[in-house]
Amino acid sequence: MTSRNNNSRGRDAAAGSNRPRSSASNPAKSTIRPRPIPGSKRPNPAPASARNTRSAASRFGLFSGVGEAGASTVGVRSRWILVIAVIVVFVFILRLAQVQIVWGPALSEKAQDQRTQVLTIPARRGTITDIHGQTLAHTMQARMLTTSPNTLRRDVGELHAQYPTVYPDVDSYIDALADDIATMVTEAAASPTTVKADEIRDKLYADTGYAVLVRNVDPDIAQEVADKYPTIAADQLDLRQYPNGAIGANVIGKLSAEEEGQFGYEAYADALLAGSDGRLTAETTKMGALLPGTERNRIPAVNGSDVQLTIDIDAQTFIQSQVDQAMADSGAKGVSAVVLDAHSAEVIAMAASNTIDPMGDIEAQVKQGKTFNNPTISAPLEPGSVAKIITAAAAIEDGKTTPDEVIDTPGSIDMAGITVHDAWPHGVVPFTTTGIFGKSSNVGTLMLAQRVGEDRFAEMLKLFGIGSPTHIELPGESQGLLPDRSQWTAGTFANLPIGQGMSLTLLQMASVYQTIANDGQRVEPRIVKKITNPDGTVVTQDKPPTTQVISPETARTLRTMFQAVTQRDPSGINQGTGPQASVDGYQIAGKTGTAQQIDPNCNCYSNSMYWITFAGIAPADNPRYVIAIEMDNPQRGPHGEGGQSAAPLFHDIAAWLLNRDNVPLSGPRDPAMLTLQMQ
């Protein structure tokens, strides 16, 4: 009996030592191999069990004395054992056949479904360039470190439970892993990313099957991490880059965290730039790695189109720096500028202060008051006197006056019971029509508007595009506000001809002056030059819609008349309101503007908050550029000087453009001095 018990233990030990670690019925669950705790040793393999040999008594025939009855009993018992064994084998075969034949296809399909995935083939987002081909936005390939936190914690826990003296517990392993990844990513010289171990640690404890641990990792560094830790994957990541930072960011825009266009042209043309992702069906490993040779149903990705804008990044850079400086020097809440090609109406520059750098810390910049908003198209304002050129255009076009007509202009005028004054007190002054606009007389402008009539003036506003969107290829454009003719009150016609009672964007203002610069033909502004599709075909933009608002003769007359605004006269008699806008050697036509803002406390016009504007044409005799500027309630001039005027900023921008592009100097003007008032 003692010998039999020992043999039984030997058989059990032998069975235990030869048991496989994994099999079809007992698969290995662990997919990771965490490092052993430093200083510990792996366990030595268990010694082979004692062999299940017969006892010495049996080997030497110690049971040979058993009688005939005993032998017969043993024989019967052996036959029963054999029968039972045959039955067991038969049942096993039937069960195996059931699994393989009956259940096999279903189980196989289920197993395949569990490891079959539809994978996305990302499309490359299109590149945005300026008019000269300089990159404004492009996509750079990087990597992101990803894992399955739930799987990682489970596998580490199982290894620790099996070998507690060799493998660390979950907390210790995650601490070490987070620290190591943070060090590898941050300290590498080529790394564009700094990351904190605590951030990685929090993600590793997340209850999820997928987590991005670190974004924007250098591909080489990401691969080092993945090679060192099989549970960490180095997945491809497309990063949008904006090499010019805040320059033009209000136009170009940026992508959201979901890689969708969020602002600017990136948002407007998101589908065009993004293209369409492809997909394929394939089998993957437990950790998501693609199994070679299992790909099927591949639909290739279609990359996004490349877009060339009309923006000149060199001009944009200079003008944006001037806008930012003007805001700082003047104490304005904001300053914006738009530059159009005088004939094509293509946007050369569109700059605004307080623009966010998409490559910087967005949250910190927002706290500083910076924004991606584009006020040149989204923030309409009352233009003030800068819009008086529309009244002049209507009067000249309809033959209601001539540039040299002398009009006795009082200091105030009654319009349907509303009294309107000039900005400075004076008696009756014999202004010429040119002088009315050169001196910016409200009274003289309204006298001319009365000659034009309300209906014709309303028609002229519509022709110039007031109250209608420009259809610029950017999101968030406001169409401004123009009261419908049927809703005009007695005071409406006392306000509109002098630029109050309506609102327009800075781009709409620039469009008005582009019409005059282009011999009376208004062209809808454009910011897209061409599109290159993924197959290499180039799509040039259709010619934008045009409207002949006034005759070429009227437009040329206006370009001469409005040079009075920038005219200098030592005596002051024939000096306009914006001589600071003049540029030596060039004829400059333009108009100053000052408009009261609405006081939110009383919902009435404020006597202390103003919009200061200037719009002009350079050169007036051979138009190349239209420049429009707005300043939100400046306390001083753009250079910190006394007075509130946007004319100095216009001068700086116009002079830079004319000099950079070597625009020929203007010829002498006849007459050399425009007469603004009779003496």
From TrEMBL:
Cell compartments where the protein resides: Membrane
Assigned keywords, A-Z: Glycosyltransferase, Membrane, Transferase, Transmembrane, Transmembrane helix
Residue spans crossing the bilayer: 80-103
E.C. designation(s): 2.4.1.129
One Gene Ontology term of the molecular function aspect: penicillin binding
GO terms for biological process, alphabetical: cell wall organization
Main location: membrane
Region (Disordered): 1-53
Family indicated by similarity: Belongs to the transpeptidase family.
Protein name, entry field: Penicillin-binding protein PbpB
Organism: Corynebacterium choanae
